[in-house]
């Protein structure tokens, strides 16, 4: 459905203003929660981070970090910091942390926050954080002011989207808040090198077009990603994204392709982010999907739910997972040998 998009629902209702944003220390985290965030050493403090709402100073190494955005826990964990609070996006994963990152919790069970009715400010304050991270949170200026009354708060870079600004920018913002910008840059450099290496191993992909689509129609519409919107995982491997359906894409969002326009998405390779068998079956019955050359000639990839989630998360950990799992599937598709079935 459309929630699996580069634009998570941005209309988050603001909760009631906190009666008291700070904590008096009388509340403690729930049983089983970590008492402090795990943290790798080596940060430089005080750390100053510039962002879309101004500037935040983190005076000393944070011990209790809360992630209020939908994907930031991945970066924190990769940098060796176990957050005391994480935010559920979708998938209902244990500890709101997907398989590619869960082992890094090392047995901890952070508080899982929800955003169904806006940010849970009171619950966040009760966690007594000394750093709040929200680079992928749809945070407003008012939200930022409320968060900043609780703890130093890091949000996305100036001019960024509310959600899913470039993953490199988000990594660096989070790393800066931890006083470890160089470590964040190293994560970026290593992952970009890994993608470049796979692209170099498959020079033939540079001659192929690709389309990335959600895996099932929703309310009679198939949501397809125009070039540049959550498609880097393919272009960094050498593929050229299909064009011609941009007129169906609201600004900054996916193209809304109806059944009669499905032919627009045909390409040398199509990646369908299917999440379950039901969605796969629904896709196969949608419009003229079965007549697309990429589908008929076994040049389409169908993901499982975890791989689809990894593509949508767009963090270094999830992108590494995508590279590992998707590469052999793309090899099959490029050779016309991809199974037309939901992955077993």
TrEMBL record:
Pfam families: Peripla_BP_2. Residues 64-334 form the Fe/B12 periplasmic-binding domain. Its main location: other. It is found in: Cell envelope. InterPro entries: ABC_transptr_periplasmic_BD, Bact_iron-sidero_bind. The keyword Transport applies. Residues 1-19 form the signal peptide. PROSITE patterns: FE_B12_PBP (PS50983), PROKAR_LIPOPROTEIN (PS51257). It comes from the Bacteria. Residues 24-46 are annotated as: Disordered. Keywords: Signal, Transport. Transmembrane segments: none annotated. Belongs to the bacterial solute-binding protein 8 family. PANTHER family: FERRIC ENTEROBACTIN-BINDING PERIPLASMIC PROTEIN FEPB, IRON III DICITRATE-BINDING PERIPLASMIC PROTEIN. This is ABC transporter substrate-binding protein.
């Amino acid at each position: 459905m459309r929630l699996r998009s580069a634009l998570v629902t941005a209309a988050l209702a603001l909760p009631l203003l906190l009666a008291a944003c700070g904590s008096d220390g009388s509340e403690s985290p729930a049983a089983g929660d970590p008492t402090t965030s795990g943290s790798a050493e080596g940060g430089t403090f005080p750390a100053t981070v510039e962002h879309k709402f101004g500037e935040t100073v983190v005076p000393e190494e944070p011990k209790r970090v809360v992630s209020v955005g939908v994907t930031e826990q991945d970066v924190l964990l990769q940098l060796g910091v176990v957050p005391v609070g994480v935010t559920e996006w979708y998938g209902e994963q244990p500890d709101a942390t997907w398989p590619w990152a869960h082992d890094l919790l090392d047995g901890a069970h952070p508080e899982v926050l929800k955003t169904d009715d806006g940010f849970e400010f009171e619950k966040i304050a009760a966690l007594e954080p000394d750093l709040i991270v929200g680079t992928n949170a749809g945070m407003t200026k008012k939200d930022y002011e409320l968060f900043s009354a609780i703890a130093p708060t890091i949000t996305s870079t100036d001019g960024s989207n509310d959600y899913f600004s470039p993953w490199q920018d988000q990594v660096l913002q989070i790393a800066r808040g931890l006083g470890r910008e160089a470590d964040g840059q190293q994560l970026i450099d290593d992952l970009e090198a890994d993608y470049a290496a796979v692209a170099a191993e498959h020079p033939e992909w540079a001659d192929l077009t690709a389309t990335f689509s959600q895996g099932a129609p929703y309310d009679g519409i198939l949501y397809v990603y125009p070039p540049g919107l959550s498609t880097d995982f393919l272009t960094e491997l050498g593929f050229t994204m299909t064009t011609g359906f941009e007129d169906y894409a609201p600004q900054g969002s996916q193209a809304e392709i109806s059944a009669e326009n499905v032919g627009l998405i045909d390409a040398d390779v199509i990646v369908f982010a299917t999440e379950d068998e039901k969605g796969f079956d629904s896709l196969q019955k949608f419009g003229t999907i079965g007549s697309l050359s990429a589908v008929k000639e076994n040049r389409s990839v169908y993901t499982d739910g975890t791989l689809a989630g990894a593509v949508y998360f767009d963090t270094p950990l999830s992108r590494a997972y995508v590279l590992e799992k998707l590469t052999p599937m793309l090899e099959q598709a490029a050779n016309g040998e991809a199974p037309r079935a939901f992955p077993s």
